[in-house]
Each structure stands twice: as C-alpha cells, then as structure tokens.
Design goal:
Blueprint (H helix, E strand, L loop, with lengths): L1 H9 L4 H34 L5 H12 L4 H30 L3 H4 L13 H33 L10 H26 L2 H4 L22 H19 L3 H19 L11 H9 L9 H5 L10 H4 L10 H4 L9
Helix pairs in contact: 2-7, 4-6, 4-10, 6-9, 7-9
Length: about 325
C-alpha cells in the first residue's frame, strides 16, 4: 500500500509532478519578467531620453509631488490604481456579458449554454453586493493595512525596491495567498458555514468576472481580502510592490471568474469547474488541491485537458470537444 501511495505521489499527475510543473512555470515567469523588465526599461529610457533608472526617476517625481501627503499617495496606489484595473477590465467584460457580443469573444465562453446574455436582474443584484464589499469591506481593510505598514516603517519611501526583491516579494505573496485562500475557502464549504455565508457566491454556477467579489461580507473579508492584504503587511513592502500585487490579484480573480478561456490569458477552467461542481478545485495555483486530492474529479474531465494557456485563436471546446452525450 505504501508503494502504491508513493507511486501516486511521484508518477505523472502526482503531487511531485505537480510541484515540478508549478516550479517550472513560476521560474519561467520570473525569468520572463526579469528579461521583459530590463528590456522595457531600456526602451522607455530611449523613448523618453531618461537618464539612469527610469522607474526610480519616475517614482522620485511622484514622491516629490506628494511630499508631505504620503497617506494620499498610499491610498492612490492601493485604492485608485487597483480600482482602475478591476473596474476597467470588468467594464469590458460586462459589455460582452450583457450584450452577448462580439461573437469573436463569446465563442471562447467555457459554459456555452450560459450567460448568453447574462440575466439583467441577477446582475443588478450581484452588483449591489459587489459595490458594498468593495467600499464597506475592502476600503476599511486597506486603511487598516496603511496604519500597520506605517507603524512598521514608511511604505512610501523615496527608494524603490530592487527589481529582484520585488519579484521575490510577489512570489511570497502568491504562496501566502494560495495557503490562506485554500484553507479559508474550504472552511467556508463546511456545511455549517456554507449555507450561511458561501452559498451566496455559488449562486453563479457559471460565473462572470465581476462576481469574483460577490460574496457575504464576512467571507469577502476573511477569504478574499485577507489572503491578498496580509503579505505586504508582513514584509513591510513598498507601495509600488503593494500596488502592483493588488492589481495582479484583482485582475487574476477577474480572469478566473470571467467565464471565457481567451487566447494568451491564464486559464480560468480550474475555478470555473469549482463553480460548476462546488467540491473540487478550492485553491488558486492548484498545488494544495493536488496535495489534498481535491482536484481528482477535475483531472478526469475535458476541462482539465483544456486547462492550459491557449496560444491559438481556435477555442479549446472546438479543438478538445466534449464527449458525445448518451443517446447521440
């Protein structure tokens, strides 16, 4: 029996295989970001004729402009900028969700028979909850983060973190989010909590981007916000890193819920399957799901085969079609 368990861990599709794949993907992403960051900096310096470190020069100008108003600068970076990222991306998706057009986007819909277009009454009800969570829950938590980070040091310091430190902090944030979100999410699936709190989020069995924060306020605070906000507080991160992380987290959860497997964007198949089946795929990265075997049913499906980066313009439900239904 021990040998069988070991082979499951070490063989293809096992935990160790999953960890190696995740390490390869994350490592490749870090190398890409490093190369892209250096290249982008070089081109921007040439275009603007900037001398020295382009990003540091840009930050210095912002820092000087807000000198004596560091709190306003902090809230601009942690509230305004992430809001533009979240609501900007969701505004574009809502146009598609509410009109069912254009077809070159809707053909990438994962659950093809759903939200074509979305129910207006259901959407209005969801938006009320989303706006409440965004203002009455997220806002005060960012204020609390500001006080904690200011107590530890100066999150709006004049010197930007090095590029490599920024990448290391983002990797730590992603790991911490995976751990905290996975276990808090599973906790809210406990029968004694699910019907009172998490059931609201699962009203959308075919999710859309904006319902990523459609949840009971307590769940939004403990399972959505806390896993994202606690990392920068622990590390005492610079505002630039914190702002970038908030934007990445909001855009990432939007993509995970958007319902479209679009070319050259991260696959939303994993979390879309969670909304479809409820008891699978609780995490963000999938490593803890593999560890706790909460993705076993998912790995037996066509959705798992489609859970990859789409690098062509052919929808994956076309290239990897569902098996014929019985009787057909």
């Amino acid at each position: 029996m021990t040998g069988t368990a070991s082979s499951r861990q070490d063989g293809p599709g096992g935990l160790w295989d999953s960890v190696k794949k995740a390490a390869f993907i994350i490592g490749s992403g870090i190398l890409f970001l490093a190369a892209f960051g250096n290249s982008l900096t070089w081109h921007l310096q040439r275009f603007w004729g900037a001398s020295g470190d382009f990003w540091q020069d840009l930050w210095t100008k912002i820092y000087v402009a807000f000198e004596g108003h560091e709190s306003a600068l902090f809230y601009m970076g942690t509230m305004l900028v992430p809001s533009v990222a979240f609501w900007g991306s969701n505004a574009l998706l809502l146009i598609v969700d509410t009109t069912g057009k254009p077809s070159f986007i809707t053909r990438y819909r994962i659950q093809q028979d759903k939200n074509s277009p979305v129910d207006p009454a259901k959407l209005r009800q969801a938006l009320k909850s989303v706006l409440f969570n965004y203002t009455a829950v997220s806002g005060p938590m960012v204020v609390a983060a500001h006080y904690l980070m200011t107590w530890r040091g100066n999150p709006c310091g004049p010197e930007l973190p090095t590029f490599h430190r920024g990448l290391a902090e983002l990797a730590f944030f992603a790991f911490l989010e995976e751990v905290l979100f996975y276990y808090s999410h599973r906790l809210f699936h406990h029968p004694s909590l699910y019907k009172h709190f998490h059931k609201q989020h699962h009203e959308w069995t075919a999710p859309i981007g904006v319902v990523s924060i459609y949840a009971h306020p307590l769940e939004h605070m403990l399972s959505n916000m806390l896993p994202v906000a606690v990392g920068p507080v622990i590390l005492g991160s610079h505002l630039a890193t914190t702002s970038l992380w908030y934007c990445l987290a909001l855009v990432s959860t939007t993509i995970s819920h958007c319902g479209y497997h679009l070319p050259f964007l991260p696959s939303p198949e994993f979390h879309d399957f969670h909304h479809l089946r409820f008891n699978q795929c609780f995490g963000v990265l999938g490593i803890l799901d593999r560890l706790h075997a909460t993705d076993t049913k998912f790995r037996e499906t066509k959705q798992y085969e489609r859970h990859t980066l789409l690098t062509s313009f052919t929808p994956l439900h076309t290239s990897i079609p569902d098996p014929p239904k019985k009787g057909q």
